[in-house]
Amino acid sequence: MQKKIRVLIAKPGLDGHDRGALIISQALRDYGMEVIYTGLRQTPEQIVASAIQEDVDAIGLSCLSGAHNELFPEVVQGLKDNGADDIIVVGGGVIPWEDIPYLEEQGVMKIFTPGTPSVETAKYIEQAVYKRDGIKDREPGELIDRVDHIGIAVKSLDESLPYYLDTLQLKLEGIEEVDTEHVKVAFINAGNVKLELLEPTSPASSIQAFLDKRGQGIHHIALGVNDIQERIDEMKRKGIQMIHDTAKPGAGGASIAFMHPKSTGGVLYELCEKPLKERL
Amino acid sequence: MEQDQDFNKLYEEWKETTKKLMERFPERKDAFQTSSSIPVERLYLPEMLDEKYINQLGFPGQYPYTRGIQPTMYRARHWTMRQYAGFGSAVETNRRFHYLLEQGQTGLSVAFDLPTQIGYDSDHAMSKGEVGKVGVAIDSLEDMEALLKDIPLDKVSTSMTINAPAAVLLAMYIVVAEKQGIAPDKIAGTIQNDILKEYIARGTYIFPPKPSMRLITDIFAYCSEHVPKWNTISISGYHIREAGATAAQELAFTIANGKAYVEAALKAGLDIDQFAPRLAFFFNAHNEFFEEVAKFRAARRMWATIMKETYGAKKPKSWQLRFHTQTGGSTLTAQQPDNNIVRVTVQALSAVLGGTQSLHTNSRDEALALPTEDSARIALRTQQILAHESGVADTVDPLAGSYYVESLTDSLEEEANAYLHKIEELGGAVAAVEQGYMQREIHHTAYETQKSIEKGEQVVVGMNAFQLDDEPKPELHRLDPELAKNQKEKLKKVRDNRDQQRASAQLESLRQAAQGTDNLMPHIVECVRSYCTIGEICGVLREEFGEFTGV
Asked: Which residue of A has its CA nearest to B370?
């Protein structure tokens, strides 16, 4: 996250059910935002005043009593009247679908219906604030700048290389031993992506374990990233289980970290940051 | 051998009481049997009876009541089917009440809108957007008269979900009955009147804890004298659970609050066997079927033990925990709402097998809006199918003796007792609430639950698994947009047409009573009779008692 986003979570009206408001406050905090919760029974005027006083980027309104059509637009209007309509307003709670177009017309930017994962709300607010502030919006495509390589486990480089080099006629870019991982790797240029053949050099190698369990084949996909530690932290905030919490050295001078296949739909992904010259 | 004799003695006693009871309340059929003509006994017992069985379980209708508070339970009469309803105006809600009674519902249950629940008139600035939304708007006696029009208050019992201003709504009910020619000692019903859980979980409090507790004990004292058939409090775990608590936390915090009310009443000089039989409980029924059944059974045993051992109550009626159950609103999904009918069925079944006295089944569309008439009827039918088609009401406590259920019952009791000890250490429920202890425990559980749902570790069918791409959008209940305006006009007329001097004088006498130690109920009844509004009555008390602003 490039700037610390401040959010006011507010309970307009008399509704006392604040489980949702408390949960979303905690979830936004865990995502890295600063969150102020108003407590119960706030009038739209009080919410507008707190938002301005606390200099927040966004307000999240929560209401389960059915008073949203009256109270949410009043908050938006109050911000306008006070010249603070750059504050983004979103809402959630028990809100029937047919009310959503009306609320959006009134200037509520987005309504989150029940069952929305809280991280979606966090991401939405983040994107909306970045867009408003002209901060370059980092779409997922930009977070990951390309597939860097595909890792393929092989029993022996000597046995495998002829297929790639002679049959497929691809170009070998180099062979390297990575002691820390107990592997010998061969990089092959496959046009728009590299293939990384991995041969275990010791029984302690995780590649050996992979070969024992599954035999030869695709081992991982490496995603090229710009700032690996930031990406690792971000993945963790989004609930991805990381095998490595901090980056470690990989082949070719890269910094790498693996994500656990349990939280990535069964695929082993590597985050991989290459030294700058290699990226050009 | 000696134990056998003890057991035989108790068994004989049970048979004797049951026989006597059945003379007054015969069972629904002369003989019960399954579709294969296998006779269904009233009670099933283990082959080997030991001391543990007698101490922990005993017979239904006998201490510690683990197996139910009556010897015959639903073989004599089904639980009360009490669907919670209320929306819009009193006239509109009255129409829904008549509809539900015609459909076979056996008790009324009133939902009030938030201004009523927090003691504001419909024209108060804080009421904006809320009038008639989550329940019916009641400003004065006139609205209450419209709400109960043509409902025979000596035949129907009414539950009112009202807490901070419970005294005012009860006073209105008493006066309406009086106008129907029915004396206060003939009316029956329940007011929720449980303020501690408002501070913990639901947020519709008005006054600070101390004067709130006084209002509650004033109601206890007044009713034991004048309205003896009224359940003066319904100590509610429901909202604690909805706020995110586990089953064990629901059980523990509810019983802790119950103890606080008992202690407040004892401190106010009331006799335990006078007020304890009028204490009722209100629990939630969630999806985890066996744990829910075990929770209800544990609750009865724990309460009986506390009342007998800790507080020395003498009357068996004081030991019996009677409870209403509502299926869990927070378990329902906005996605694929018809699935909610199935959830509600499982939850309702757990309440019935747990021995509930009355039941509300939620409607399928409650995660979206107030129930439509169609969905309210399906919810009631769900109970009727359980009662009349499933056969689960034909024997008492059918799950007793299940190794799993008995073990869960013991474990829940143990876990709840650990919480009760912790709360004792903090100085009791009132002190624990003031320190925010229960609030924090519940919030922590709620957040962990949410995270595990979002990670997919906890499956919610239709929401994080088995989703549909193009969900059809159901018809939702819509409120009359003119409602608030009409309600405000009606209120203005009441204020214009009443005897203003008399109303002011009654409010003044309430103020003076509040400053002293008089029982406030008679003053509130007089205010109501003079058409003082709920906002005016609570306004006086706000000025005298102050307002609670949250932890």
From this structure: A66
CA B22 centroid distance within chain:
28
Would the CB atoms of A17 and B202 count as touching at under 8 Å?
A: yes
What is the C-alpha separation between B82 and B369, in angstroms, rounded? 20
Task: Give the phi and the psi of residue A219 in degrees, each rounded to 5.
Answer: -100, -45
d(CA B454, CA A120): 10
Q: Can the peptide bond before residue B64 be classed as cis, meaning omega within 30 degrees of 0?
A: yes
Chain A residues whose CB is inside 8 A of the B243 CB are: 17, 19
- Among candidates B132, B190, B216, B138, which has minimal Cα distance to B534? B138
Distance (Å) from the C-alpha of residue B202 to the closest C-alpha of chain A? 5
- DSSP 8-state symbol, A61: E
Which residues of A fall within a CB distance of 8 Å from B550? 39-40
Question: Is B368 near chain A, with CB under 8 Å?
Answer: yes
Rg of chain A over all Cα atoms, to the nearest angstrom: 25
Supply the pTM of this predicted model.
Answer: 0.80
Q: How far apart are CA B246 and CA B251, in angstroms?
A: 9
**CA distances (Å), origin B428, targets A66, A109, B153, B259, B260:** 36, 45, 38, 8, 7
Per the document, the length of chain A is 280
Give yes or no for a contact between B100 and B121, defined as CB atoms under 8 angstroms apart.
Answer: no
Instruction: Detail the DSSP E strand segments found in B382-526.
Output: none
Among B275, B177, B172, smallest CA distance to B219 is for B275
Output the CA torsion sign for B339, B340, B341, B342.
positive
Residues of B whose CB is below 8 A from A115: 333-335, 460, 463-464
Is the Cβ of B450 closer than 8 Å to some Cβ of chain A?
A: yes
Q: Dihedral, CA atoms, B411, B412, B413, B414, nearest 10 degrees?
A: 50
The whole-number pLDDT of residue A278 equals 45
Closest CA to A271 of A244, A252, A253: A244
Q: How many CB pairs under 8 A join A and B?
A: 97
Closest residue to A94, CB basis, from B127, B367, B464: B367
- Does A118 contact B114 at a Cβ distance shorter than 8 Å? no
Strand partners, A60: A9, A90
Within B103-165, where are the H helices?
Answer: 114-117, 141-147
With CB atoms and an 8 Å threshold, state whether B134 touches A98: no
Instruction: Please provide residue B465's backbone torsions phi and psi, each rounded to the nearest 5 degrees.
Output: -155, 155
CA distances from A161 to A200, B272, B417 (A): 15, 89, 68
Other Cβ atoms closer than 10 A to B46: 10
Residues of chain B numbered 84-113 and touching chain A (CB < 8 Å): none
**Burial readout B295-314 (b: 16 or more C-beta within 10 A, e: otherwise):** bbbbbbbbbbbbbbeebebe
Minimum CA–CA partner of A25 in chain B: B447
Q: Which two tokens stand for residue B428?
A: 């009791």
Among A14, A17, A23, the residue to mutate for chain B (most B Cβ within 10 A):
A14
A-chain CB neighbours of B118 within 8 Å are 14, 41
Nearest C-alpha neighbor of B291 from the set B395, B390, B410, B396: B410
Find, among A63, A8, A136, A188, the residue nearest to B114 by Cα.
Answer: A63
B547 near A CB under 8 A: no
DSSP one-letter code for B189: E
pLDDT digits (tens, 9 = 90+) for B412-442: 999 999 999 999 999 999 999 989 999 999 9
ipTM over cut 0.90? no
In tens, the pLDDT along A148-173 reads 899 999 999 999 998 998 889 898 88
Q: Where are the alpha helices (DSSP H) in A146-242?
A: 157-162, 206-214, 228-237
As a whole number of angstroms, the distance between CA B341 and CA B347 comes to 10
Q: Which residues of chain B have pLDDT under 50?
A: 1
Question: Do B454 and A69 make contact, defined as CB atoms within 8 angstroms?
Answer: no
Measured distance CA(B398)–CA(B400) in Å, rounded: 6
